[in-house]
Amino acid sequence: MKLTGRSLSTLLDYSVDEIKYILTQAHKVKMEKMNNIFPKRLANKNIALIFEKSSTRTRSAFTVAAFDEGAHPEFLNKNDIHFGKKESTKDTARVLGRMYDGIMFRGFKQDTLNDLIQYSQVPVWNALTDDHHPTQAFADIMTLQERFGDLQGKKLVYLGDAANNVAHSLMIIACKMGMHFVICSPKSRRPADDIIIQCEKIIKETGAKLEFLTDPKCAVKHADCLYTDVWISMGEENNPDCKERIEILKPYQINQQLIHATDKDSTLFLHCLPAVKGLEVTEEVFESKNSAVFDQAENRMHTIKAIMLATLT
Hints:
Number of domains: 2
Low-confidence stretches: none
Binding site for L-ornithine: 165, 229, 233-234
Keywords: Cytoplasm, Transferase
Radius of gyration: 19 Å
CATH superfamily of the largest domain: Aspartate/ornithine carbamoyltransferase
Shape: globular
Mean pLDDT: 97
Oligomer: single chain
Main location: cytoplasm
Distance between the termini: 11 Å
Strand order of the largest sheet: 7-6-5-8-9
CATH architecture of the largest domain: 3-Layer(aba) Sandwich
Family: Belongs to the aspartate/ornithine carbamoyltransferase superfamily. OTCase family.
Pfam families: OTCace, OTCace_N
């Protein structure tokens, strides 16, 4: 499958077959790494890593994945370059596109990412914007495949604040994989309407099921996986509505009682991390046998490697 030269803005850009191809490659490169096989397929490639927002998993995953394949990753903090200050995004993109083979962007506005894609003329990968987080969703699905194999019809329940980038990307990829995807949140914290409309079109083709519920115990019944994210995202800490948001989200905490309400011992717990234990999830669940959050974190590296290989070679 030819994906060379493609950027990754959102998962809406990629077909079901393209998503499955990248996931297949992710499993392959994970096995290679486990067996100390490093083919260096990105030798002499240079990767720009632009960070407006701080990171642990994303920076580490891109850096190690690039080194494993023989590429050179260059960390570019927003305070280190003229990006968006003395120089427009358009001009920065045209400069970087002449020097680097690929660009990773982790920041705020989707429009900034799209400008990088339009003007750099090299593959640009969305490592998080306010609207989408596709590299996280790839790792989430890879983790589920490792536990359950074929995901058609598997029930994935996302609880808590669903008006965010993680919920958007997870909803898209779950629908494309034919899953039974449930958003369980207050009505005021549901995903953006335009993305819901896109997902309603997808499920007609894939046989997926999409539900929006408000009762956690009802939502999680027979769930194969429970997923949550922080209730206050990076950059929102000083918003005046934070205290009110936490209050309305308290019933959606993933705790042991909610795990029991699934009626399944095998229900998986996932979280994109970092977690605020005691808010969206309890320490007990986070450290339980149901939790696969560190497998999920590791899989960021393997899926990112697969994305870079697919689009650069």
